[in-house]
């Protein structure tokens, strides 16, 4: 028998072939294109060729459409599981972003599913059925395949506590050690579907990121014998490799690719051949049935995106993302203004999340806000010390490297995953980086209200909830330092700001300098 393990991951709500930048925009990715590829890969389906489709998480959050459904049309939330049903998904895994809109919404998203959601390392004190199944066992022609579902254990560090009521996330390696031997007694083939990635280079085994537990795929493969195939995600990588003899795939993001692991079994049900592959969907047409399901809510959303909000005097368009991060930018200054207005603090930080952020045009619509501020962040107010703030700025300063007199982005923030969202720009303080100095000792000026900040000084800052929880390797921040949180998404706060200030003047701040 030949088993085909076909997977999507990190679709992030990019369902139709559009990036929502304009109404008529067509792009070479999206779940509707992936659906056509899945149909091609599953065309042969019999006792000799057995396709199994797995959705590996981060499915219901990330695009303007997902925000529109979550915040304005929750009755449309079952659409997600209906779309997964269209792809004949046989197992689903929770991604970290599945929890962004709360558990009631997540339950609604999965309410029409024909497949189990797998949550081996998620323990629920309230014993909800959504998290009750750690694995599933599928059988065909006398062959049994077990699929174990795992989710990055870092969810609880990033997510708002009220979105995780009763949930506890355990270490994925220890969980797999407990389950994999048991599953081999129950099934012929054991597959791990993990919403997490590889923390080490597949060829050299050298660490490719900080070994903090966010991604544990390499550890799973090294420490847990008996895994026959592993599906990964979270890092948005396009990956088809073999590690310690185990085939591993990761299909990128936004439905740009579909991954497949082919396992050939002999008459004794032993795996004799393993082949990991990733297929681009750019040349496949969107699936008509899926587009028909999307059409009603998509039209409503497009109309909403074109809602005018306000006007900009000057320019908040981002032309060079590196220069904006290096010298500050009116758009970033504006976001910090919104944060400070919402919380009443006079220090705030924000990030230019990726190199696709366009900034805001002169006549601002909801579309531009959603395309520039792409995460459903909420704000948290933290009380920290001057030493904490300096350490955070040193982390920011490590974003840059000076090579032959030229400033580049530190590869740590580029591989294995693009992480521009780790670098913050602050308002309300005056600070200077000297890039000729070693990483960890680059902050040469840090003033608050014209006075040098002292290590023991108490400061109140506004951060997004991801950073406030220490996300992005900021251990100087933490939930124990949060004084209060806002329940309103940043995109709504931006719209509300324009309602109070219909005309906003673009201002390039001068509080931040870089020397090199």
UniProtKB/TrEMBL annotation:
<feature type="domain" description="Calcineurin-like phosphoesterase">
    <location>
        <begin position="5"/>
        <end position="237"/>
    </location>
</feature>
<dbReference type="InterPro" id="IPR006179">
    <property type="entry name" value="5_nucleotidase/apyrase"/>
</dbReference>
<keyword id="KW-0732">Signal</keyword>
<dbReference type="InterPro" id="IPR008334">
    <property type="entry name" value="5'-Nucleotdase_C"/>
</dbReference>
<protein>
    <submittedName>
        <fullName>Bifunctional UDP-sugar hydrolase/5'-nucleotidase</fullName>
    </submittedName>
</protein>
<comment type="similarity">
    <text>Belongs to the 5'-nucleotidase family.</text>
</comment>
<dbReference type="InterPro" id="IPR036907">
    <property type="entry name" value="5'-Nucleotdase_C_sf"/>
</dbReference>
<keyword id="KW-0547">Nucleotide-binding</keyword>
<dbReference type="GO" id="GO:0016787">
    <property type="term" value="F:hydrolase activity"/>
</dbReference>
<dbReference type="Pfam" id="PF02872">
    <property type="entry name" value="5_nucleotid_C"/>
</dbReference>
<dbReference type="InterPro" id="IPR004843">
    <property type="entry name" value="Calcineurin-like_PHP"/>
</dbReference>
<keyword id="KW-0378">Hydrolase</keyword>
<feature type="domain" description="5'-Nucleotidase C-terminal">
    <location>
        <begin position="324"/>
        <end position="478"/>
    </location>
</feature>
<dbReference type="Pfam" id="PF00149">
    <property type="entry name" value="Metallophos"/>
</dbReference>
<dbReference type="InterPro" id="IPR029052">
    <property type="entry name" value="Metallo-depent_PP-like"/>
</dbReference>
């Amino acid at each position: 028998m030949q088993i085909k393990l076909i997977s999507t991951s990190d679709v992030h709500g990019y369902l139709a072939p559009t990036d929502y930048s304009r109404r008529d925009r067509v792009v070479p990715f999206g779940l509707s294109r992936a659906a056509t590829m899945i149909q091609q890969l599953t065309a042969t389906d019999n006792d000799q060729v057995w396709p199994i489709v797995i959705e590996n998480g981060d499915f219901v959050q990330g695009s303007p459409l997902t925000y529109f459904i979550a915040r304005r049309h929750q009755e449309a939330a079952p659409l997600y599981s209906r779309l997964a049903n269209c792809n004949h998904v046989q197992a689903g895994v929770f991604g970290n972003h599945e929890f962004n809109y709360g558990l009631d919404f997540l339950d609604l998203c999965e309410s029409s599913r024909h497949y189990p959601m797998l949550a081996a390392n998620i323990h629920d004190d309230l014993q909800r059925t959504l998290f009750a199944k750690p694995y599933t066992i599928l059988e065909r022609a006398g062959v049994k395949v077990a699929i174990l579902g795992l989710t990055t254990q870092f969810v609880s560090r990033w997510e708002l506590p009220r979105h995780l009521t009763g949930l506890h996330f355990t270490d994925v390696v220890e969980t797999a050690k407990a389950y994999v031997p048991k599953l081999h007694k129950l099934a012929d083939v054991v597959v791990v579907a993990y919403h997490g990635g590889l923390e080490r280079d597949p060829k050299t085994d050298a660490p490719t990121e900080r070994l903090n537990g966010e991604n544990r795929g390499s550890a799973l493969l090294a420490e847990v014998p008996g895994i026959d195939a592993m599906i990964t995600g979270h890092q948005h990588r396009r990956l088809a490799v073999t590690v310690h003899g185990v085939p591993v795939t990761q299909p990128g993001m936004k439905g740009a690719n579909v991954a497949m692991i082919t396992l050939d079994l002999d008459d004794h049900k032993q795996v004799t051949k393993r082949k990991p592959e990733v297929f681009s969907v750019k040349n496949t047409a969107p699936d008509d049935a899926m587009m028909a399901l999307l059409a009603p809510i998509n039209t409503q959303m497009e109309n909403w995106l074109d809602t005018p909000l306000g006007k900009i005097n000057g320019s908040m368009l981002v032309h060079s993302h590196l220069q904006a991060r290096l010298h500050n930018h009116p758009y970033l200054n504006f976001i910090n203004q919104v944060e400070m207005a919402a919380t009443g603090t006079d220090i705030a930080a924000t990030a230019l999340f990726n190199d696709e952020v366009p900034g805001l045009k002169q006549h601002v619509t909801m579309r531009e806000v959603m395309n520039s501020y792409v995460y459903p962040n909420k704000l948290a107010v933290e009380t920290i010390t001057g030493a904490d703030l300096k350490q955070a700025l040193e982390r920011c300063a490590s974003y840059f490297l000076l090579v032959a007199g030229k400033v580049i982005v530190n590869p740590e923030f580029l591989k294995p995953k693009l992480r521009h969202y780790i670098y913050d720009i602050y308002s309300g303080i005056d600070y200077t980086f000297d890039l000729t100095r070693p990483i960890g000792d680059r902050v040469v000026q840090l003033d608050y209200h014209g006075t040098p900040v002292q290590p023991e000084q108490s400061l109140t800052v506004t951060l997004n909830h991801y950073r406030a929880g220490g996300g992005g390797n900021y251990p100087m921040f933490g939930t124990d330092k949060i004084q209060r949180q806002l329940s309103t998404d940043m995109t709504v706060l931006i719209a509300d700001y324009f309602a109070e200030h219909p005309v906003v003047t673009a201002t390039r701040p001068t509080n931040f300098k870089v020397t090199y």
